[in-house]
Amino acid sequence: MTSYGDDATVRGILTGTGDTWAVVGLSNNTARAAYGVARVLRKYGKRVVPVHPKAETVLGEQGYASLAEIPFPVDVVDVFVNSTLAGEVADQAVAVGAKAVWFQLGVTDEAAYERTRQAGLAMVMDRCPAIEIPLLD
């Protein structure tokens, strides 16, 4: 299995890329992995911006229906959607000027990974920031 995002890239995104994370697929469904990961990111000082068709306010942060609707810069786009939709989200992340894209565990799209890296963004695929961030301590 190829690794998409070495430890240095993971560390760089978590510590140096910026603290505004758009979490695509985040809703108020506490049973979903996105909700738990958002809570961990917040615990570590990240601003978590929900991106979901319902545009719900989650964990006190205003939600948006798409990345393009967020009216401020986003540093990292964390993707909790099906792999068949993830490439489009990565392309949107490039379009809005994000610095990095993170595809969650089980979310893979090799072509999107290559496009995103070629556009100059850091990218991690098939890993979880909530697992990785405590390991930095």
Main traits of this protein?
5-stranded parallel β-sheet, 137 residues, 5 strands, single chain
Report on this model:
The mean pLDDT is 95. The protein contains five helices and five strands; from the N terminus they run αβαββαβαβα. Helix 3 (83-95) runs parallel beside helix 4 (110-118). Strands 2-1-3-4-5 form a five-stranded parallel β-sheet, sandwiched between helices. The protein is an alpha/beta fold.
Distance between the termini: 27 Å
Q: What is the average per-residue confidence, as pLDDT, rounded to a whole number? A: 95
Low-confidence stretches: none
Which strand order does the major sheet show?
Answer: 2-1-3-4-5
The outline comes out as globular
Kindly estimate the percentage of residues that lie in beta strands according to DSSP: 15-25%
Question: From the helix content, strand content and strand pairing, which structural class follows?
Answer: alpha/beta
Number of strands: 5
Please trace the helix and strand order, writing H or E for each element: HEHEEHEHEH
Q: Quick one: biggest sheet?
A: 5 strands, parallel
Radius of gyration: 13 Å
Secondary structure: helix percent: 25-40%
Count, helices: 5
Quick take:
This protein has 137 residues and is α/β, with parallel strands linked by helices. 34% of the residues lie in helices and 15% in strands.
